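Section 4.2 – Deliverable D4.2 (structural model, holo form)

The reporting period included a commitment to supply a predicted holo structure for the target in complex with pyridoxal-5'-phosphate. Inputs used:
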Amino acid sequence: MTTPWHHPETLALHGGYRTDTATNAVAVPIYQTTSYQFADTQHAENLFALKELGNIYTRIMNPTCDVLEQRMAALDGGVAGLAMSSGQSATTLSVANLCQAGDNFVSSTDLYGGTWNLFANTLTGLGIEVRFVDPTEPEAFARATDERTRCYYAETLPNPKLNVFPIREVADIGRAHGVPLIVDNTAAPVICRPLDHGAAVVMYSTTKYVGGHGTSIGGLIVDGGNFDWEAGGDRFPTLNTPDPSYHGAVWSEAAKALGPIAYVLRMRVVLLRDLGTAMSPFNAFQFIQGLETLPLRMRAHCDNAARVADHLRGHPKVTTVIFPGLQSGEMRRRADAYLSGGYGALVGFELEGGREAGRRFIDALKMFYHVANIGDARSLAIHPATTTHSQLSPDDRLATGVSEGYVRLSVGIEHIDDILADLDQALAAA
Ligand code: PLP
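Output (structure tokens):
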């Protein structure tokens, strides 16, 4: 469903859905069903042959998930979305949709620790080579590219360094080489629209800000519909050669009648079909509830985080504060070029006293939760060296920017006075 609205506040409430066609329900119903009755054998045959789009089986599509997919695609200015079971599955499928054993992709070093492990170990074990490059130097992406490079991968606002990724610079380099850029926009929904800056695909862990209430794990892909896969020819064998698992379909060809959705169509009907990482309709409902207030919450998150960063900067026990709004030079230019309406709600800081001070600070928190999550409406904190980044080798840990005394905050939407008071009393104990 196309909507006449363009403002994120309106799209978050009305994108992709008006009322339920079966019941006129205004809230999106939870279609908790595995399967869908075919009208007759011709209808079934058409659906399986993709001559007609419609519901077949919830591993592949579901009407509740469909609203979330459409709404997220509308918010990001994409052509179609695909919901799945977790952010990790969205990352995995975003790469696996283009790369097969023997292929490679180029990734920014500045990644969530789980993504780093997935790329450096699990995908490598499956024969897909990751080439890590430093994102402060966009040309490094070009140098790492060869004829088996299928995509580039990066995060908009990667923690812990919080250096905003040079989306336009790398997307342009990619387009000159015929390579699409996939952007993980988990930490910057609404405040950044990577497709506007040349990215081809956006992925989310909806677990974070989209859900916003810390209840459900989920992931989502938005296809920008702005990349010419067919022109890429041999670079994209998964999209441009006959698929033996789908009666020889060539996806860049087969998608034509449906719109510029070859990438997300293949991901849905081949990868979701085979790998099975579907989102449950109940979780899709939870994410829709979160999404409806996402623009409002992002504003409150960003405002509080800016106040926290400013406050920490003046504290004697804090040696460094990491926040895009406090950066200068090229990093600040990028933050201002790619973020609008705020600098996100992640704040990093380094404590005098290293690892032990980090532990004492976390143990003293009373309101902030000590959890391995970001993007909850509640304020959250973690000490990466002893948790999220502890499984990485010391070298890999340093490459991702985590030092022993580093603490990451995901600033929530509580009253700012209560947030600052909790931080101050924990700093006193650190
Ligand atoms: N991407 C980023 C930036 C994340 O922070 C996370 C989780 O922390 C993920 C991806 C993975 O998402 P999920 O936990 O939903 O699998």
